[in-house]
Structure to design on (269 residues):
């Protein structure tokens, strides 16, 4: 799917999932917004309806600053959930909460649990999400953990190279999937127990791969609850943005998942 603007060689689509907005999460999101403002980047935030109801001003401010705020699905809406009518009702109820507070309606969804190939095989769920007024989803996370945690080098390389196969695509029902690529922060810090310096190096490696291959979207999967614990100053995201901005004289840009959706609608439908 060729969808990048001609001026860009690759883009970084940074998506952050926010389950709750306690004091540390609020501070993190504000820090992140400040970092992105300095470099002219926008981020994609997926907010749980409970978090938005608890602290609506945080998300309203993010939207006013040019970031995209869409829906993090209720926890019972999973890839394994066979009760599609109930899932549709939960998604629609949560979407109404976001739409009541935010300046523009939610058009995207991130599932609380992502997995390999996303919802490729569940066309009924695809149709249910579309009928709820949503156009894109982030459900596909296909990166594998290292089989030998003490020697992750080969797996690290594969994690970055998987970006080539984790590009936006249309599901049969007409829903756009924007897959996550590289390691997620949860898999990196919690499952592997690795350091912040290693995480920064991994993010840069992924940017380098996307830039060198050309025409690729790199969409890391991030979570506020993980980052407030392991990178409260958002040093890794700042390093990610600065590294991307330095590549090929600005040929690596930044975008939201909403941007990707609009590009895909214009160029591939």
């Amino acid at each position: 799917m060729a969808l990048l603007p001609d001026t860009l060689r690759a883009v970084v689509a940074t998506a952050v999932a926010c389950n709750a907005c306690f004091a540390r999460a609020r501070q993190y999101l504000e820090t992140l917004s400040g970092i992105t403002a300095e470099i002219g980047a926008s981020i994609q935030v997926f907010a749980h309806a409970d978090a938005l109801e608890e602290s609506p001003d945080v998300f309203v401010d993010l939207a006013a600053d040019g970031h995209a705020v869409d829906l993090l699905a209720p926890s019972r809406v999973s890839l394994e959930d066979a009760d599609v009518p109930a899932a549709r009702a939960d998604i629609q109820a949560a979407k109404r909460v976001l739409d009541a507070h935010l300046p523009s309606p939610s058009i995207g969804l991130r599932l609380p649990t992502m997995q390999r190939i996303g919802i490729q095989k569940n066309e009924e769920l695809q149709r249910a999400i579309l009928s709820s007024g949503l156009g894109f989803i982030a459900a596909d996370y296909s990166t594998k953990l290292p089989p030998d945690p003490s020697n992750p080098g080969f797996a690290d390389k594969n994690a970055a190279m998987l970006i080539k196969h984790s590009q936006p695509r249309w599901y049969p029902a007409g829903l756009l999937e924007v897959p996550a690529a590289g390691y997620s922060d949860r898999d990196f810090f919690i499952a592997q127990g690795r350091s912040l310096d290693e995480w920064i190096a991994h993010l840069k490696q992924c940017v380098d791969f996307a830039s060198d291959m050309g025409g690729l979207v790199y969409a890391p999967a991030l979570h506020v609850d993980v980052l407030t614990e392991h990178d409260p100053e958002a040093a890794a995201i700042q390093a990610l943005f600065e590294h991307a901005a330095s590549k090929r004289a600005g040929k690596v840009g930044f975008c939201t998942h909403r941007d990707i959706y609009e590009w895909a609608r214009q160029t591939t439908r």
About this structure: The first strand starts at residue 10 and ends at 13. Residues 10-268 form a domain with the TIM Barrel fold (CATH 3.20.20.370). The chain has a mean pLDDT of 90. The chain has one domain: 10-268.
